[in-house]
Amino acid sequence: MKTLLEVVGRSVLEDESDVQMKGIDTILGNLTSGISKELPVKVDKSEWLIVTDGEIERIVRTFSFKDPRHVKDFVTHMIFEQDEMQHHARIIIEGNDVTVEAYTHDVNQVTELDKELADFCDKLYRDVLDFYIVDDREISI
Q: Do 56 and 26 fall into the same domain?
């Protein structure tokens, strides 16, 4: 794998003078010194767990909210999306926590449809949290 400096470096800026190149090398070198220099960067962490009990494999994630209004917005939008997808997950609401369990019932396993629903839930969760925050302060409605 190439380093960031190799990807952006001299091949991109071949026509630039050596003086300008030394400047860009210094800047890029400083940016990459504290991080892995290999590309692409991969995210290994997932909040979704794969759970198998007996013959059924499912993906499970719990979303935590600070306010019941956030829970209501999340669940409402999730229900509309599930209806549109024609694919429904189990939704468990406990206080301000919402647990989503998804699997494809016909095959008792996780399929692409479940992964799409999980992706939607992740994005919706971020949207709901962002909706109620303005300038790092929660707003009251």
A: no
pTM of the model: 0.64
Lowest mean pLDDT among 12-26, 57-71, 81-95, 102-116: 12-26
Q: Which of 62, 49, 63 is nearest to 110 (CA)?
A: 49
Pick from 106, 90, 107: which is nearest to 98 by CA?
90
Residues 62 and 25 in one domain: no
Beta-carbon count within 10 A of 131 CB: 13
CA dihedral 48, 101, 123, 84 (to 10 degrees): 150
Residues 74 and 126 in one domain: yes
The label of the residue with tokens 């190149």 reads: 21
| Residue located via tokens 């956030």 | 70
> In sequence order, which residues have a C-beta less than 8 Å from that of residue 79 and are 6 or more positions away?
91
